[in-house]
Amino acid sequence: MTTLEKLNSKIKLFNGLFNDLQSTNSRLLKEYYIDEFFKDGLRDGLIEDWNYILETLDGKHPIGFTFEPNNNNMPKENYYQEGSIKELIQMCEMIKPKTQSNINTVQALISVYGNFLAPIVNRTLRLGIGKSLLEKVDTTPMLAKKYNGEQLKDDVVVTEKLDGNRCIAKFNNDIGIWEFRSRNGKLMNVNFNMDGFDTRRIYDGEVMSRRQADLVLRRDWAIANDTDYTDIDAREAQLLFNETSGMINRKSGKKDLVYNVFDTIDATTDYETRRNALIYEFVQSDPENDVRLVPDLYKGKDINVINELLDRITNMGGEGIMLNKLDRTYENKRTDALLKYKQVQRIDMLVTDVEYGQGKYDGLIGALCCEIFVENGERISCKVGSGLSDDQRYKWALNPQDIIGKIIEVAYHEVTSNKVTGDLSLRFPRLTRIRTDKTNTSEY
Question: Do 262 and 203 touch, CB atoms closer than 8 A?
Answer without folding.
Answer: no
